[in-house]
Design a protein that fits this description.
The first copy, chain A, is mostly helical. Helix content of chain A is about 70%, strand content about 5%. In chain A, strands 1-2-3 form a three-stranded antiparallel sheet, covered by helices on one side. In chain A, a hairpin with a 5-residue loop joins β2 and β3. The first copy, chain A, is elongated and about 105 Å long. At the A-B interface, α4, α5 and α9 of A face α4, α5 and α9 of B.
């Protein structure tokens, strides 16, 4: 019996160099790798060892020569093995992009687009208050303000809001249009945010239907982003899930015992916690984190959809 | 002689209640206010005191009654005085919007758009590296990367860059288009930044031609923004101008003497300082701040254009 290993796996031969057993490294990957190879016609499928081995076994040679030939067949030329190795590595990296990574990107991009919107909206408000401070003061919502600025002329806004005399300056046309174009850029960012939210919702409903049912797609996305991946989320204790996103407060508490430990991280945005009385929040957060983790486990192991049941249980508990 | 003051100014009457003298509060403003009033037909110009007084003087009344009438004429109804006061205040706020405030807004908005671009570009790079890491790695410039992503399909990019086999995953169409739409949003922000830079250049060349000649419109705008206004910039010592934007480093030095004092603030972006040797930088920064302050003073007092001369002097000094 001979044992031989190379980049593709480990092979066991009998004395006639027939393959008795083979363990491919990362079995599933290698199988898919072969499938991929055959699909991709640019790379020739020269990997049918068994055929090669049969030929060798059929030749009448002394055992040493036979072994040499088998090794050569296995390794191919040096370049071939190298390119196979490269291909396999690339293939593994390729396949490591899972839905949860895309969810993380989508969720983080939403947070960052939000940051950009707030940054530019603050600027817009300060700037626009030179022109019509009365309007800027009365409209709290950034999006509505931008829409009003872009869609309506200064005169229309003044007459609509019954402002005879504004404290704002009569800016020249270029000054006005500088403000208007900034507002329309912010509106574009709002559109971008909406489209990313829709995209995230689809991803979450497909890859993590249970988490989505329990926590909603926005909070669920943030939890996945904080955890790094669905797998590492599943491996967390519920108490960690409860505090995801509250790392600063937690470390502050750990360094300085005077400050209280946080009760909840990102899940504070959940409507159950928003509705809960202040004293109940710790309890609700604990149960919510429990259920989210349970949902995550079901999603990870592709179990049946129990999200609605979990959500109902939570809601009934804290009615 | 009678002296009477109200919101519009102080009036001195003789015994016949003829106006002998009047000092209007903020003379210039009040004059413009009258001009404005007559232009603005919505508000009736009922402020020709002299006429009213003449009528009163022409009536045959005992002095007490006369005085009453004069006061009434001056005050009008309570509402009238209130609305005059309001108008004057609004008018003053209106007129307080000067070019330097708009410059500050434009300059700050450019910094903030830049921040937003960097924030979203980092996200885009991380996300795009799932699809074509080889391209993401080779293109350092954010704008170029966005353009490539938006304009070219994945296949084109691969064949153009001779990538047979990418480590990137084959994303589905919705996943790809989520990335592409983020890239096009970033490109929009680049456009917005360009338009704001052009706008700032125009403002600076008009309001602060000398500063622009010496420091350039971008640095000049930032200096004005840090100073708050052209007036407060003019009142600063040159050493403060030199350190504008380096407040953190300065306070760090003041609190802890071990850290060195900063040599330059925002002016470090100036090409003279960029070209200078490290040892010369303090000297160059000092001279540059001097000239910028001089230019600012000329701009503030609307003097003749000497920016080119100042710039030449600087360049010759540090050739």
């Amino acid at each position: 019996m001979y044992i031989y290993s190379n980049i593709l796996g480990t092979f066991v031969f009998n004395q006639n160099f027939q393959v008795r057993e083979k363990v491919m490294f990362s079995k599933e990957d290698t199988l898919k790798y072969f499938e991929d190879l055959f699909e991709n016609k640019a790379i020739k499928p020269e990997l049918d060892f068994e055929k090669k081995f049969k030929n060798i076994v059929n030749l009448r040679l002394n055992p040493d020569d036979r072994m040499d030939r088998v090794f050569k067949a296995l390794e191919g030329t040096k370049g071939e093995l190298y390119s196979r190795n490269l291909f396999l590595t690339k293939w593994q990296i390729k396949k490591s992009v899972q839905a949860d990574l895309l969810i993380t990107q989508a969720s983080d991009s939403i947070s960052e687009i939000n940051k950009a919107i707030n940054l530019l909206s603050k600027r817009l408000r300060e700037w626009y208050s030179y022109s019509l401070p009365e309007i800027e003061n009365t409209i709290d919502d950034h999006k509505t303000l931008c829409e009003q600025i872009v869609q309506k002329s200064r005169k229309d806004l003044m007459s609509k809001n019954k402002i005879d005399l504004t404290m704002g300056a009569e800016l020249s046309d270029p000054d006005e249009s500088a403000i208007i174009s900034l507002a329309s850029s912010i509106l574009d960012l709002f559109k971008q945010k909406d489209s990313k939210e829709k995209y995230l919702e689809k991803l979450m409903k497909k890859a993590c239907p249970n988490i989505t049912a329990v926590a909603g797609y926005l909070i669920g996305g943030k939890i996945l982003s904080y955890a790094g991946s669905l797998k590492s989320l599943v491996l967390m204790p519920a108490s960690t899930v409860q505090l995801l996103g509250a790392e600063k407060a937690l470390f502050r508490h750990m360094v300085n015992n005077k400050s209280r430990p946080p009760k909840h991280g990102i899940i504070i945005e959940h409507q159950l916690l928003q509705k809960a009385k202040k004293d109940d929040r710790g309890k609700v957060a604990r149960s919510l984190a429990d259920k989210i983790l349970l949902a995550a486990k079901v999603d990870y192991f592709k179990g049946e959809f129990i999200g609605d049941r979990l959500k109902k249980e939570l809601e009934e508990k804290f009615k």
